[in-house]
């Protein structure tokens, strides 16, 4: 019995060894399968490389040469390959404009057809505007447009008295050589006197109630006194001064070495009277006289007592022209229209007002700018 018990542990010791051998024998086929899969991948890669080398040799004379793909790329492309060869990409053929098949979206404006709704929308926006109507462009105009506008305004100002119904035809120098430059002579003072007297009589009840006769009209005497003077002798330094017309609360007017309104009216009148014919000279004279009286009536309460002197008591004799463009609308609507514009043509009057204000701006007598109307026909 003892011997048999001794034999039992020996059998027990051999049992686990047999189990281990069985486990080893079971794991062997798994390792073999893994090696077979790796060998399969390597063989497949080698076959692909051999095929590509043969294709490259056949296409060695072709202009397009592409580098062989790396093994990593080949592994990623295995699912897309068939029979161990890469698939060739098929180029998509673009439909021609004449092929209307499958084009269900038709443009209502030009009857062109498209494959999708967004394509039709893009076509309508680019070719026909939004929804078939062109959108208005917004935003600031280009610099070129602005410079052209300024240039055209300057041209309008320079050519204002070139219109046939305004310009003066000089017939005094017919015997002179046409190539010689003709000096523009000043208008006769008697013609100026006659025009102002007629205006004074016509508008006495509405404008000149407080003036007994023409001899006591200060602007009439001012024009006669300076009309025949040379430009160099006009307005010496002691006469060339005025006060700033930009009124601010608590700030007294500043005395300036510049022209007052009466002097500016005179300079404008004398400069352009020589360019106008007799009929338009009457128009200019009436405009200047009435505009001056409107300013003096409108702003008479703004005169400061400390600025009044013996010879200067009216607004136009004391202040400059800085705020003149501000009163243009009041002059036209409140001063002229109730009296039917005193017989002046409305459209031509507006053009002359704008011409005078642009002359003030051009010569730096005011910082405000008014534009001229459309070109003369």
Characterise this structure.
The protein has 377 residues and is an all-alpha fold. Among the domains are: 38 residues, no CATH class; 176 residues, no CATH class. Helix content is 47%, strand content 2%. The chain is built from 11 helices and 4 strands; from the N terminus they run H-H-E-E-H-H-H-H-E-E-H-H-H-H-H. Helix 5 packs across helix 8. The protein is elongated and about 130 Å long. The N terminus and C terminus are likely disordered.
Q: What's the arrangement of secondary structure elements?
A:
Layout lengths: L1 H57 L12 H6 L28 E2 L6 E2 L2 H12 L14 H16 L30 H14 L15 H9 L15 E2 L11 E2 L4 H13 L4 H21 L16 H4 L9 H9 L9 H17 L15
Antiparallel strand pairs: 1-2, 3-4
* DSSP summary, beta strand count: 4
The fraction of residues in strands falls at under 5%
Given the C-alpha coordinates, what overall shape results?
elongated
Q: What structural category do the secondary elements indicate?
A: mainly alpha
CA(first)-CA(last) distance? 147 Å
Name the poorly predicted regions.
1-6, 8-17, 19-32, 63-67, 144-149, 172-182, 373-377
Mean pLDDT: 76
Order of strands in the sheet with most strands: 1-2
Radius of gyration: 51 Å
Order of helices and strands: HHEEHHHHEEHHHHH
Relative helix content: 40-55%
Q: How many DSSP H or I helices?
A: 11
Main sheet makeup: 2 strands, antiparallel
């Amino acid at each position: 019995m003892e011997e048999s018990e001794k034999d039992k542990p020996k059998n027990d010791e051999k049992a686990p060894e047999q189990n281990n051998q069985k486990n080893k024998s079971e794991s062997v086929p798994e390792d073999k399968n893994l090696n077979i899969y790796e060998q399969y991948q390597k063989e497949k890669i080698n076959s692909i490389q051999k095929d590509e080398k043969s294709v490259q040799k056949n296409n060695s004379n072709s202009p397009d040469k592409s580098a062989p793909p790396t093994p990593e790329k080949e592994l990623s492309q295995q699912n897309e390959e068939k029979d161990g060869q890469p698939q060739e990409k098929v180029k998509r053929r673009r439909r021609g404009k004449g092929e209307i098949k499958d084009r269900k979206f038709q443009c209502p404006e030009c009857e062109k057809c498209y494959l999708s709704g967004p394509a039709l929308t893009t076509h309508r926006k680019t070719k026909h505007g939004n929804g078939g109507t062109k959108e208005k462009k917004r935003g600031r105009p280009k610099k070129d447009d602005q410079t052209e506008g300024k240039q055209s305004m300057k041209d309008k100002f320079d050519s204002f008295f070139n219109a046939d119904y305004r310009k003066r035809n000089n017939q005094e120098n017919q015997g002179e050589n046409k190539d010689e430059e003709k000096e523009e002579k000043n208008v006769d003072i008697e013609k100026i006197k006659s025009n102002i007297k007629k205006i004074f009589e016509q508008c006495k009840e509405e404008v000149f109630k407080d003036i007994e006769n023409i001899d006591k009209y200060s602007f009439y005497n001012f024009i006669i006194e300076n009309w025949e003077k040379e430009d160099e002798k006009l307005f010496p330094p002691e006469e060339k001064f005025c006060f700033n017309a930009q009124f601010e609360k608590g700030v007294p007017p500043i005395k300036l070495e510049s022209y007052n309104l009466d002097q500016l009216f005179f300079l404008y009148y004398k400069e352009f009277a020589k360019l106008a014919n007799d009929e338009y000279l009457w128009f200019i004279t009436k405009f200047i006289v009435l505009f001056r009286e409107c300013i003096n009536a409108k702003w008479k309460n703004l005169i400061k007592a400390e600025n009044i002197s013996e010879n200067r008591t009216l607004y136009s004799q004391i202040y400059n022209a800085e705020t003149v463009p501000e009163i243009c609308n009041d002059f036209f609507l409140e001063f002229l229209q109730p009296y039917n514009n005193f017989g002046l043509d409305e459209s031509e009057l507006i053009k002359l007002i704008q011409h005078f204000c642009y002359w003030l701006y051009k010569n730096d007598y005011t910082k405000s700018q008014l534009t001229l109307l459309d070109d003369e026909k």
